[in-house]
Known about the structure:
There is one protein chain. Helix content is 84%, strand content 0%. It is mainly alpha-helical. The chain has a single domain, classed as Orthogonal Bundle (MetI-like fold). α3 (59-91) runs antiparallel to α8. It is globular, with a radius of gyration of 24 Å.
Amino acid sequence: xxxxxxxxxxxxxxxxxxxxxxxxxxxxxxxxxxxxxxxxxxxxxxxxxxxxxxxxxxxxxxxxxxxxxxxxxxxxxxxxxxxxxxxxxxxxxxxxxxxxxxxxxxxxxxxxxxxxxxxxxxxxxxxxxxxxxxxxxxxxxxxxxxxxxxxxxxxxxxxxxxxxxxxxxxxxxxxxxxxxxxxxxxxxxxxxxxxxxxxxxxxxxxxxxxxxxxxxxxxxxxxxxxxxxxxxxxxxxxxxxxxxxxxxxxxxxxxxxxxxxxxxxxxxxxxxxxx
Length: 275
């Protein structure tokens, strides 16, 4: 019965997604047919032709590959650094008092403003682009995870204290598991931030990459390639988000079961008291 419900739910979402894509394409065709904007907002047919051409000659694959290396490199570095910093911010008041003001200060600086400094320090290689993406991803993720650590249910902490749990046990057996949903939220936000920062990162002088492709095509008014690059970045972001969401569901399945059992026990207790 549960599998049948899951099947119907998946089918419903798939149908809704297909309808959404169809409506978007219809709007795209309608807008591109307006003479005043047709030269800028070209039709989906022209974008599709540009996509097929760039796939066949291998150009698009090179751009996608190099951009993914930069995005995943900056994201991975940001994730590895943000998790311990976020837990330290949420767990140690002294560390929070020293570091949090700097986190809030750096959040107001757009990554594009760092380009001259990064180029002067690292040149125009791949490392410069990874550093810019890392900067944006780290700040996004550290704030999100920190909120999760800070907002751990006090009931869980009190229950652990009742069983004489020390700080180490409390941290690893209560705080970390309770923060897992926030970590996955930070992962999804971090991936989105990495992709949105990609174009700015490739302003450092990249020869290849989706951001570079969009910039060069824009200079020569090749709007079909510009829109193709934008759509490809959107598709990559969509796929990465779905992968992160799928992993989150697998990892946090125990929390869903725990919440269901908790609701069931509360319902049973209420029925007993009413009786």
